[in-house]
Amino acid sequence: MSTLPSLRAAQPDDAGFIYRVIEETMRTHVEATWGAWVPGRVQRESAADACDSKTRIIQLEGEDCGVFYSEIHDGALWVRMLFVMEKFQRRGVGRHLLSQAQSQASAAGVPIRLRVLTVNPAKAYYEAQRFRVYQEEDDFLYMERAT
Questions:
Q1: Between β-strands 140-145 and 132-136, what pairing exists: parallel, antiparallel or unpaired?
Q2: At 57, which helix (H) or strand (E)?
Q3: At how many degrees (to 10) do helices 15-34 and 39-51 cross?
């Protein structure tokens, strides 16, 4: 990757962008899991995320390209959102952000965790980044990477 991604704080006017990123990256998986995409719900959640101080907009080469959200909670650093628009995927963006999150988790002495829909092929990506499934539910897999 020639350029490293950067993060900026989300602002309320990023709600539409957050919605578009989530729709592009997750709609197929949401429909496969629950049978329907509910635009109003996702728009409300995107608006709330845009106002959350932990939500970051991922930028690459001067362009907004995704959404990242992490927090230390219940003895782990949770990656709540790591959504990268398709045209920016396979360019090391996710790997770089996970590496930064891993450094933060290591400094705090906690594992890094995330959850992924069982139908989402991102599971294989996370496994390649040394995450392992530690809990399974009907719709979700919970994954962890030790520090």
A1: antiparallel
A2: strand 55-60
A3: 140
- State pLDDT tens for residues 34-80: 999 999 999 999 999 999 999 999 999 999 999 999 999 999 999 99
| Global model pTM greater than 0.90 | yes
- 66 vs 2: CA distance, rounded Å: 18
Q: Which helix (H) or strand (E) holds 48?
A: helix 39-51
In contact, 108 and 51? CB cutoff 8 Å: no
Angle made by CA atoms 119, 121, 127, in degrees to the nearest 5: 115
Report pLDDT digits (tens) over 84-137.
999 999 999 999 999 999 999 999 999 999 999 999 999 999 999 999 999 999
Nearest C-alpha neighbor of 7 from the set 145, 115, 100, 116: 100
Burial of 34 (0-12, 13-18, 19+ CB in 10 A): exposed
